[in-house]
Amino acid sequence: MAVFHGLSALAIAIFLAGALSRARFWLSDDRSPGDGGRRPTKRLAQQASVAIRFLLRPQTLQTLFWNGLVMRQVWRESRLRWLIHLTISWSFVGLFAVGSLGNYAADFGAPLEKDDAWFAAFNDAAALALLAGLGLALGRRYLTPAAHTRTIFDDAIVLVLLALLGLSGLLVEAGRILEEGTTASAGGYAFLGYPLSQALEPLDWNWEVAAGWVWWTHAVASLSFVAYLPYSKLRHMFTSPITIALASDKEAPSPENERSANQETEPWPA
């Protein structure tokens, strides 16, 4: 697992580099041609300190909770968009937590087994929510698009990648069940993975080999997607709540550049 941990660290480092780049761009709202388009590092640090202190205020945290976690503003605009955003974003977070972070926890001695009832049920429920949200997003964006919806190639890439991650994750679970010979009584809580394993069993593959290949394919794809997040349109999952929170108070640092960074007719994926 050392290779997996190393790749995880690399993916997180790339993610943080992208996030910090976005933060630097946002903080540089008064850049001028004379300074090469960038603020001095000291001034950026000062501005970042001001922004962090503001974001940690109780009023700002409350706004972040309602507009970032609960997505109240999206709910008010469109119930369907709210459902799509909620299912895709939170199911992905949940799958990443029980997948990648769960592997770390088990490696460091946490009493965590893949066939634990809560783990298997949560994993499959999150996968189902992700695929359902993607289905709704595909239908709304490509079958019945709103008049103001603007779809670009990046939308298709993100949707396809998420769908592949969700489906390959179920294949990983099914392959593990077949490799370990998990019984129905132990694997029954995997209400998607276990039936899929029974459907694949007649193929009579060498699951000790096949499960390993499927797992590494899914792991590399998942970590690549995490690294890609801050560079894709999905970054609005993080930037939009913060922008809304900052705009809700006159004392907030001015996020003028975030306006130019997010000039999309309608935020992805809804």
What report would you give on this structure?
With 270 residues, the protein is mainly alpha-helical. It has one domain (2-261): Fumarate Reductase Cytochrome B subunit. It has helices spanning 2-27, 41-55, 58-69, 72-77, 79-107, 117-143, 153-180, 184-187, 193-200, 207-228, 236-247, 256-261. The radius of gyration is 21 Å and the shape is globular. 26% of the residues are buried. Mean pLDDT is 77; it is low at 30-38 and 254-269.
**Major pleated sheet:** none
CATH architecture grouping: Up-down Bundle
Number of helices: 12
Following the backbone from N to C, one meets helices and strands in this order, namely HHHHHHHHHHHH
The residue fraction in helices comes out at: over 70%
Domain tally:
1
CATH class: Mainly Alpha
End-to-end CA span: 37 Å
- Rounded Rg: 21 Å
The global form is globular
Mean pLDDT: 77
Itemize the secondary structure elements and their pairings:
Layout: H1 2-27, H2 41-55, H3 58-69, H4 72-77, H5 79-107, H6 117-143, H7 153-180, H8 184-187, H9 193-200, H10 207-228, H11 236-247, H12 256-261
Helix pairs in contact: 1-10, 3-11, 5-6, 6-7, 7-9, 7-10
In short:
With 270 residues, the protein is mainly alpha-helical.
What are its keywords?
270 residues, mainly alpha, Fumarate Reductase Cytochrome B subunit, 12 helices, disordered C terminus
